[in-house]
Design brief:
With 192 residues, the chain is mainly β. It has one domain: Jelly Rolls, CATH 2.60.120. 7% of the residues lie in helices and 40% in strands. It contains 1 helix and 13 strands. Strands 3, 5, 6, 7 and 11 form a 5-stranded antiparallel beta sheet that branches. A hairpin with an 8-residue loop joins strand 8 and strand 9. The radius of gyration is 18 Å and the shape is globular. The mean pLDDT is 77.
């Protein structure tokens, strides 16, 4: 029997698909993987490390990330500020150190570093006015890649961040907390 892949957001009253967004097509690609709990586990990888999240005005931060080989990267979770519905203001570049082009250069996800707003996907899946949280809690759907990215070789990635907020507050200029969470399907040891 053939099953059509349905977006879990189709039943959510807070979100709508818009022309030009590929969420529906991406969800159709990964729907079967999400059902294969016998083969894949959903895992999240965060960069930079928690102690390195705070960066100063116009600072550059590079960090490494290891994702197990055989994993499939499907998208990014980039937290938005509840007051603006936008993520922090920085540029990002992700380099897969194992995939190479014809000239032997590592594969970069983007032609040039892109603003974080392009990785944000502010489609709230729920919103709550939790009295313990000053501005409530927002859960958002990930920003999906147009196609899954397979992790090959030893699974090493380099992530680079450039602060673009600038500003003049404090002795070192503005500082902001940056984080990028990568969503992956990680293979289990035994797959039936």
């Amino acid at each position: 029997m053939i099953e059509l892949a349905l977006s879990p957001l189709q039943w959510d009253p807070l979100t709508r698909d818009y022309y030009g967004q590929w969420d529906a097509y991406s969800i159709a690609q990964i729907a079967e993987l999400a059902k294969r709990t016998d083969c894949y586990t959903l895992k999240f990888y965060k960069a930079p490390a928690s102690q390195d999240e705070l960066i100063g005005a116009f600072q550059y931060v590079a960090c490494g990330l290891h994702i197990p080989p055989g994993s499939l990267i499907f998208g990014f979770y980039l937290p938005a500020q509840p007051s603006t519905s936008l993520p922090g203001s920085y540029n990002v570049q992700i380099t897969d150190m194992n995939l190479r082009d014809r000239d032997g250069n590592p594969h970069q996800f983007f032609d040039e570093p892109i603003p974080s707003v392009f990785l944000g996907n502010y489609k709230p899946s729920y919103l709550t006015a939790d009295p313990l949280q000053t501005s409530g809690l927002i859960s958002s759907f990930p920003s999906l890649l147009p196609a899954i990215h397979p992790v090959t070789g030893d699974g090493l990635f380099q992530l680079e961040f450039w602060d673009t907020l600038g500003g003049d507050s404090g002795p070192a200029g503005s500082s902001q907390r940056i984080e990028l969470v990568i969503g992956c399907f990680v293979p289990k040891e035994k797959c039936s």
